[in-house]
Structure formats: structure tokens, C-alpha cells
Amino acid sequence: MASYGWCSTQAREDEQRCEERDSGLDAGRTAGSVAGTGSGSSSSSPGAWPWWSVHHGEERADVWWASMLRTRYEDSAIEVTCAEFTRLFRAKFIPEHIQDKMEQKFLSLTQGSITVFEYEARFAEHSKYAPHIVADERRKAKKFVMGLKPSLRSRLVAFDHRTLDEALSATCRKEREMDQYIKEKRAAQERSVPPF
After folding, report:
1. What is the DSSP letter of 82?
2. 20 to 30 A Cα–Cα from 45, which one of 75, 86, 153, 172?
3. Residues 105 and 188 in one domain
4. Contact between residue 13 and residue 35 where contact means Cβ atoms under 8 Å apart
């Protein structure tokens, strides 16, 4: 049975359903790119575009998808997975230089002064722009660790984390240990300073 929607509701067993998975398409940014009215930059809010341009973009995407289903997937036994749809959609509506820019943004992402959980959230958000890197869990975990601030990275880089969850757990443990050490050190310094 063929898929006649944006993503197949008959997802393969080894893939999550489209509704549960972040397909890597930001509707606000994509709508502007599809309609040809926006640059696709994250500084533009979806509400800033006139209704008709977003509507036109949706119509254009609908026409494209209907055409794809008719011409490329005419055999009713073929399923269209979310991953395949995302790949096709990006190739059609998101210019390669924008894809490259977003991938570079992911590759240069570092923790800086934000918390580990904020960094992990940004990492997850930006990782959709580099699917070839995050497809392998070890590479994904390594990229996460390499983006941590130096004090954490140096304590974690020697370990071979198999998954991002494993790397995140180890990072949180090390961060707690470091915080505890700093608290104990400060308390010891306060006790050792004689009052004047």
C-alpha cells in the first residue's frame, strides 16, 4: 500500500514514526524558503511572512509531493519513509549553500558558557543539519564530547562512549563531581582563613 501523505504512516519497524521523530525540517524557516519569500534564516519569525506567501509555499510543496508520488512512486507497494521524504524535500526546497551553512553551524557548535543540558538541547536541534554525522551513534557521541568546554572535555575524551545518552550521563556525572570538588575546596579555604 502506498503512502499518499507527507510521510508514510506505515513506517518500517526500524524507524520511528514520522509524528514521533524530528524530521529536521523547521516549518517556519522552510515555509519561507519554499515560498521564495524568506531567506530561511532563523531570525525571521513565521508570523512575519504574509499569509498568502506561506499558503503559496504549502501549495507549491503539495503540488511537488503529489507529482513525486505519481511519477516516482507509482508502484502502490512502495513506502515512502520519513527519512526519504526529508532527503527529497531538502534537495528540492532548501538550497545547498543553506544546507552547508547549517551543517557548519552544527560542526562548530560548542558548549561555551551554557549548561550541559542547554548544550545538549542545542546539539539535538542542530544535529538534524548533519544527518551523515549523527547517523552513527559513536560519531554523534564523539562530536558531543568534543564540543564540551575544555574542563569537561579533557575528563571525557579518553572514553569511548557508544551513544549520546552514555556521553551525556558521563558528562553530567563529571560536572557534578567538579562542582562538588569546587564547593569542598571553597569550604576548606574558608575554614583555613583565620579571622582578623
Report:
1. H
2. 86
3. yes
4. no
Tell me how far the alpha carbon of residue 189 is from its chain's centroid: 43
| Long-range pairs of 173-176 with CB within 8 A, sequence gap ≥ 24 | 175/116
Query: Which residue type occupies 160?
Result: D
Let me know if residue 12 belongs to a domain.
Answer: no
Do residues 181 and 105 both lie within one domain? Answer: yes
pTM: 0.57
Rounded CA separation 139/127 (Å): 12
Mean of the per-residue pLDDT values of the chain: 73
In this prediction, residues 53-76 reach a mean pLDDT of: 69
DSSP-derived secondary structure for 149-180: -HHHHHHHTTS--SSHHHHHHHHHHHHHHHHH
Cβ proximity of 32 and 106 under 8 Å: no
* Residue-range definition of the domain harbouring residue 89: 60-93
